[in-house]
Design a protein that fits this description.
It contains 4 helices and no strands. The longest helix is centred in the middle third of the chain and has 33 residues.
Amino acid sequence: MSILNYKYYDTPEGHDIFKKTFVTTKYAAISGLAYSTFDVLMFSHPKGFVNTVGRVGYIVGPLVGMAAAFTVTANMVQNYRGKNDKLNYFWGGAAAGAICGAWMRSATIGVPAAVVFGALAVIKKTGVDEGWTFIPDTTLASKSIQSVRHDWTMAKDIPELKSYVIKPEQ
């Protein structure tokens, strides 16, 4: 299976740690680039190319580090303990929170972030184990190329009025 098509839960916990880390850091990098673009354009307004790249790196780097810390910690704890339970995800979330605290240079932020990220990771693990759907797949029929073939009107046309439509001569 290609690493680009790999999904996090394609293999059991504790296996293919490199692929799982690639998946999580890929999503963190994409999210970080979106957020840093918003930050650069709307808030920080750095002057020059080097300062802009530095600001983007300041935001994207720690987010990628938190994703990698979560993945590696959760999977290594899984391999060490030999159990696939919620505690592994809690330790992964706590590692990500520790990275967040180091990024903010504050233990006052880092300790609560570790607890909150650990709790969120436990909720995610519970959802995965019990089959919860966090973000449902929805397709909007009104947004497809076939939309013109559907009649989305609230009231149908009256058939006898159609004969009174004036058609241009050809």
